[in-house]
Amino acid sequence: MVISFVLDIWFILVCVLVSVAFLTLLERSILGYIQIRKGPNKVGVIGIFQPFSDAIKLFSKEQSLPYLSNFLMYFFSPVFSLGLALCFWMVFPIFFNLVDFELGLLFFLCVSSLSVYALMGAGWSSNSKYAMLGAYRAVAQTISYEVSLALIMLTCVVVVESYDLVKLSENQDGWWLVWGFFPLFLVWFSSCLAETNRSPFDFAEGESELVSGFNVEYSSGGFALIFMAEYGNIMFMSLISVFLFFGGMVKGLVLSVVCLSMMFLWVRGTFPRFRYDKLMGLAWSIYLPLGLNYLLFSFGVCYNFVVMCM
Q1: CA distance 260 to 288
Q2: pLDDT tens for residues 276-310?
Q3: In Å, what is the CA distance from 141 to each residue of 2, 32, 113, 147?
Q4: What are the structural domain ranges in the chain?
Q5: pTM higher than 0.85, yes or no?
């Protein structure tokens, strides 16, 4: 039993890491088409070996160490970031029955709240003003949009009456929440963009303002780990979105996750970077009241339905 459990974990982790590699290839190809230029197409057939070439290049480069950095925190933060990104997948019990969490969505919120420590540690330990400013931005942005994410998730939980991903999928059989909560899905998707620090909300890595943000002092393997964690989070947020609003769709789950991940990439090639004060105003002045109203509306509808059935 224990051996099977460990093998299942290793199998899904390897699948996630390989998927992250090819998601980068997909992103570069999509951006190439959007910008009317050639994407990666030289390494292997249609560039299929490009992710492996990039991985070899990144992990074989010389590792730089800022002279005044906090050594342990500087090296531990990227590992911690990738570890959290992989921990998310523990709540995915459909095919491999890793851990069937009855409170899987609460576990997701707990793990996602820890991601700010990796960003803060990477920015602070680098002992660079640009990295520190990027960390400030990332922490404020992540905390702000976690509020709207939690409210939207609680709205779905109130309707479905379960925190379990399996029951979320079963209770949406024949009717997806996206049909009744389409505006809420749009808010959820834009909050996911902000939570994963993706364009147009990529202020933690604003190259025009902060050189490269909180990861400016990282190179080689450290930068690769941060990079992998970001794309792993994109894939998992796409997976959670499918379960919350599209009923899980077990037969078309992989295709649905790929399509939502492509939307992350499409947004990057389409929209310019937002302004930071408008980003925070969007979270607290628009998304927070909207999420609260939808949550209270869902409570009222479910309460009246229970009273009518009694």
Answers
A1: 23
A2: 888 888 899 999 999 899 888 888 887 777 667 76
A3: 40, 29, 12, 10
A4: 66-309
A5: yes
